[in-house]
Amino acid sequence: MTKPEFTPLNFELALKNNLTMEFDADILIGKTDNIHLKVDGKRSEMYKEMLLNDPLGKECLQDISKNNLYQKACYKMLLKAHAPDYFKGTLSYKDLKNTDEAFIFNLYELLESWYDWEKEEDVYKTVDDGKLEIEAQAFYYENYINYKFTSKFGEVSLNNVEGMSYYPYAMSFYAPLSSWELARNWFTGYQNLPFCAVDNNKVWTFSGRSYEYNMTGSWHVVMVDEAKDFGNELLILAKRPEQEQAEVHITYKTRTGKTLEIILTPKTYQVISNAKEICEDGVSIYYDDVAEQPLVEYYSIRGGFDEIQVFSINNGAIRLIFDNHRLVLFTDDHRSTTRGLCGQSTTEIRDDFMTPYGLVDAPQLYGASFALDGEDADPKTEELKKEAKLKAYQPVIKYTNILRSDAQWSKVANESIKKQ
C-alpha cells in the first residue's frame, strides 16, 4: 500500500493537498494461481466541499485562526480529510474453478441478505476474460456507497448500499494510528487511544477537557506516570522559550531495563538508548531484544513548511507528533495514573482539574501548576504557580444517602422545596 507522503497537522492545508492512495496486492490461490488487485483512491471535490461545510469544519477553522490546529474538532476533520471517497481498480485473475465461482456467488447472496441496495445490470458493457473492473463512490455524510463491477458477463451496479458512520475513519490514512485503530477509536469515543494536544494557546487533555494555556520558557510536565504503569517509567517535559519554537524532553525506562531519551528542538532531534539500533524502509528503530519488540520507532513526514517528527514508544504504548511548535500524544497504556498538562487519562473531565496542590479551576493557574522551578524558569509562570498554590482547594468526598422507597425520596424532595 502506498499512503500519502504529505500529512499536515493543518486541516486547511490538508484540503489543499490532493489526496491520493494506491493499494496493490497479490492473493495466492493454490500453488500457482493468484488474484492481483490494484486500486487507486482519491478525495473528490464533492467530498471536499462537504468537509468545508461541516459544522465541525467551521469550528476547526475558528481554532486554526488562533493557530490551534489539533483540538477535537480539527482532529476529527483531519481524519475525514485523509479518507479517499472515490476508488477505481482492477482485479486480475486466471481461470477460476467452479468451487471458487460458487463461493463468490454464495458470498454475494449472503451480502444481499444483510444489506439493501438497488441493482442495475448491463450485459453489453464487458471487459476481457480474467479481469474485473471495480469502481466505488462513497457518500460518507449520507452513509451509503455506489459500486460498479464490470466483467466478461457485463456490468452490475449496486447503488445506495448502506454504509456506517465510522467508514471515513476506517478509510483514513493518518499517522500515527492505523486505519483499524482509527475506526476502533471512533467506536470508543476516542478513548481506546486517547490523544492530548499541547497546541498554540490551548490544551486538549486525554479525557477531553479543553483549556486555554500559553506554555512558556519554563519546563512543564506534560505527562508523568506516577505509578510506573507495568513497571515502565515515563516522563515528558516541554517548554516554549520563544513563540513558535518548542522543545521536548522525553525519558522512558522499561521493566526490562532498556532506557530511552528523546530530545526535540525546532532544528534538531536526538535519540539516546541502550537498545539495539536498526533501520528499515526509512524508519529508525531501537529494538528491545529482551521484550522482543520495538522500544522506539521514529521517522519524519512532510506536513507543510516543516517536517513533522513521529515517534512510537514501546511498541505503540506512547505515540507522539511534533511539528516544532506543538506536541500531540496518543496513549495506549499509562491510564489513570498520569499527571501533567495532559491530565490523568481517566476518561473523566472532572479529574483534569487536579494539580499537585489540589483542585484548581483557572486554566492559567492549572497549567502553571505543572511548571518546574529552575534558573531558566519564566518569572510570570512562577508567579502564576504561587497563586495556584494559594487558590488550590482539596476535594471533599460526600456520600449520598441510600433511600430505599419512593416515600423517602418524596420526603427529601418536599424538605428541599421548603428550604427554598
UniProtKB/TrEMBL annotation:
Source taxon at top rank: Eukaryota
Residues of the signal peptide: none
Domain VWFD, residue spans: 194-379
Molecular functions per Gene Ontology: lipid transporter activity
InterPro entries: Vitellogenin/Apolipophorin, VWF_type-D
Entry protein name: VWFD domain-containing protein
